[in-house]
Amino acid sequence: MINKFLLKTSLFTGLAIIAFAANSVLCRLALGNGAIDASSFTAIRLLSGAVALFVILSIKGSNKGALSKGSWGASFTLFLYAITFSYAYLSVDTGTGALILFGSVQITMIMLSLISGTRLHIIEWSGVIITFTGFIYLILPNITTPSVNGLVLMTVSGISWGIYTLKGRSSKNPLMDTTYNFLRTIPFLVLLVFFTMQNMNYSSEGIVLALISGAITSGVGYTIWYIALGGLSSTQAAVIQLSVPVVAAIGGVIFVSEVITIRLVISATIVLSGILMVVLGKYHFTQKNTK
């Protein structure tokens, strides 16, 4: 039974990380190439995610599992993450954005976990440091000095996503919670469109990228992530997300025919080693305390 639970957690965690990496690529393709403006991309992304999840929930039904419907707090942090992420990438390059975003996510989740009373063991702290080192090593060549606006927006985005993730750890029905979290962003989207409609600019390519990002890599991806969080500690969830840039880089090698570099291999090895230390460190001390 334990093995099945660990296998399920590992599988869904892996799928979620792949979705996050794909989402980053889609966002950069849409916003970086000017195929769509940040406001339109965010609106289409969250709205399409809400529609796709509502359809899936309607087909699946809600007879199984707890009847939970997310929260306004989670919905607001989801919206805040999405809108600040989109606007931040208008003035921050990929490497710098990744550093600020995932650095903010990790610090937010670990700090809130420590405040709530969780204590990390030396092995876990070592894993956190090693993983972050590998993460910085990967994106180091692409780091530039960010604009003040880009720095603030991406930091807010990372903090928002960290809080949204922590709220998901208590989810009893990930699909229903995620669906209603997305649906509750609609009032915020109406206000966003109202205040930005004069500056909206979009193309068919930008709309398609936003739809894929919303319905699949965000809607379905975030549901999978909420499922995975049921088997992860706050620290594990924070550290594991640092693998997203590595996975995205590997995806570039596979799907965009980018070259495998020594830096990518070394970084992947360091990041995965750090994650392994955090996961095994938590498991070791949990087993030790139960004996």
Topology:
Elements: H1 2-32, H2 38-60, H3 72-88, H4 94-115, H5 122-139, H6 148-168, H7 174-183, H8 186-196, H9 204-229, H10 234-240, H11 244-255, H12 262-290
Helix pairs in contact: 1-9, 1-11, 2-3, 2-7, 2-8, 2-9, 3-6, 3-7, 4-5, 4-6, 4-10, 5-12, 7-9, 10-12, 11-12
Concise structural overview:
This protein has twelve helices and no strands. It has helices spanning 2-32, 38-60, 72-88, 94-115, 122-139, 148-168, 174-183, 186-196, 204-229, 234-240, 244-255, 262-290.
Low-pLDDT stretches are none
Give the radius of gyration: 19 Å
Helical coverage, percent range: over 70%
Separation, N- and C-terminal Cα atoms = 19 Å
Spatial shape = globular
Main structural class: mainly alpha
Number of strands: 0
Average pLDDT level: 85
What structural keywords apply?
78% helix; mainly alpha; 291 residues; 12 helices; globular
Note down, in words, how this protein is organized.
It is a single chain. By secondary structure, the protein is mainly alpha-helical. It has one domain (2-290). It is 78% helix and 0% strand. It has 12 helices and no strands. The protein has helices at residues 2-32, 38-60, 72-88, 94-115, 122-139, 148-168, 174-183, 186-196, 204-229, 234-240, 244-255, 262-290. α4 runs antiparallel to α10. The longest helix is centred in the N-terminal third of the chain and has 31 residues, at 2-32. The two termini are 19 Å apart.
